[in-house]
Specification:
By secondary structure, the chain is an alpha/beta fold. The protein has one domain (about 5-215): TIM Barrel. It has helices spanning about 20-25, 50-60, 75-85, 100-105, 150-165, 185-190, 200, 205-220, and strands at about 5-10, 35-40, 65-70, 85-90, 110-115, 135-140, 170-175, 195. Bound molecules: D-xylitol-5-phosphate (DX5) and zinc ion. D-xylitol-5-phosphate binds near residues 9, 140, 143, 178 and 200.
């Protein structure tokens, strides 16, 4: 069985108590901090960008896993690399010259991630396997925390793993949206190794314990 990486999403954290939120999930064993950058164009919601990433970089040594739900995300590649971002994940629909920008992300020293919306086909990855480090399967339509897990994403992860094996690559496979102690085990068994969780972590009274519960639920037998 693959390792487990929990990436709490600060979208659901109390931004007025950000330091406390980060300290809690770090104590619980979080591996990455997931940052949802939205522009109100690519998705119908507007969140945060450079100032919050800069604040997070000062607050934690955990890798920052930045998920850009913005049009033309390539505008931020070098800036985010300079800020110390580790993972830069973009959506194929948001940019025209995808391969060029994935290459630029790597050249800037970050891991390149490609996010697939529920309607985006896995086969797209076959064109860019060598250009990416991570595939992000959206298990909700992006834009908001607290949505229900789309079960079709499980079969999608299995297909994605089969395509990757066929291509002879072994990317990080991250899943994002509706991850809870009830859904995380199936997603892990389907082949995901990195789990974004917003509501299931920061929507609880004890985020540290929520991270531990999610980690444990991955290895629970069914
Ligand atoms: C949704 C974002 C997610 C969101 C997940 O568009 O990409 O990262 O924060 O939130 P939950 O875990 O509540 O579905
Ligand atoms: Zn996200």
């Amino acid at each position: 069985m693959r390792g487990v990486r929990i990436a709490p999403s600060v979208l659901s954290a109390d931004l007025g108590r950000l330091a406390e939120a980060i300290a809690g999930v770090t104590e619980g064993g979080a591996s990455w901090i997931h940052v949802d950058v939205m522009d109100g164009q690519f998705v119908p919601n507007l969140t945060f960008g450079t100032p919050l990433i800069r604040a997070l970089r000062r607050l934690t040594t955990l890798p920052l896993d930045v998920h850009l739900m913005v049009q033309r995300p390539e505008r931020f590649i070098e800036e985010y690399a300079d800020l110390g971002v580790s993972v830069f994940t973009i959506h194929p629909e948001a940019t025209i010259h995808l391969q060029r920008h994935l290459d630029r992300i790597k050249t800037a020293g970050m891991m390149a991630g490609l996010a697939l919306n529920p309607s985006t086909p896995v086969a797209l990855l076959d064109e860019v396997w060598t250009d990416i480090d991570l595939a992000l399967v959206m298990s909700v339509n992006p834009g908001f925390a607290g949505q229900s897990f789309l079960r079709s994403s499980l079969e999608k992860i299995r297909r994605l793993r089969a395509h990757a094996a066929q291509a002879g690559v072994d990317p990080i496979v991250e899943i994002d949206g509706g991850i809870t102690p009830e859904t995380i085990g199936e997603a892990h068994r389907a082949g995901a190794d990195t789990f974004v969780a917003g509501t299931a972590v920061f929507g609880t009274d004890d985020p540290a314990n929520a991270v531990r519960t999610l980690t444990r639920a991955c290895s629970a037998q069914v």
